[in-house]
Design goal:
Blueprint: H1 13-19, H2 23-28, H3 34-37, E1 46-48, E2 51-55, E3 67-74, E4 80-88, E5 91-96, E6 99-103, H4 105-110, H5 113-116, E7 122-126, E8 129-138, E9 141-154, E10 168-169
Antiparallel strand pairs: 1-2, 2-9, 3-4, 3-10, 4-8, 5-6, 5-7, 8-9
Length: 170
Amino acid sequence: MAGIPESTPVSRVRDAKQALKPDLVQSIESGIRTKYRDRRSNTARIRQGEWFFVPAPQVRVELLLVLRNEPIARGGGKPHVCEELYRFGGETVYVSPGAPNGLTGEQYRALSEGERSLWNWRVMRRNPKVYVRGRVRHHDHKTVVLDGWHEVLSNTENLSHAMRNVAFLD
């Protein structure tokens, strides 16, 4: 199940699948025959669940900042585990079961000490730039193996009204 952004009305399954692709994925797939665009993998990208992995041979990573067996998730879902992950940018947020999409520092500091003590909080980054390589595992999906660095992009369901409170947390 996925929420389709209301800005992209659809009437066919093929249109819904296209509407869930981020703009970058749609643009790099423009030269690919239509019948190959809905596959889990094509020459432009690989998809696993809600994540798209786009080859990024030009990216330069700081090897000391590469994390091993790092999860990626969106607001409370089961995480996908990436063999190697490099991230930068994004917004620092405080995440707990009571705030699965995270609170900004200002929102967190506005909570009383009693409200803060109700949960265990984790500091995470919302909407960072993320690159992965190696195996990406998830209980519900076949493991994918990414040769070289790939940019991680989420599908567009978070743009739908029904899914507006879903965030990419890392």
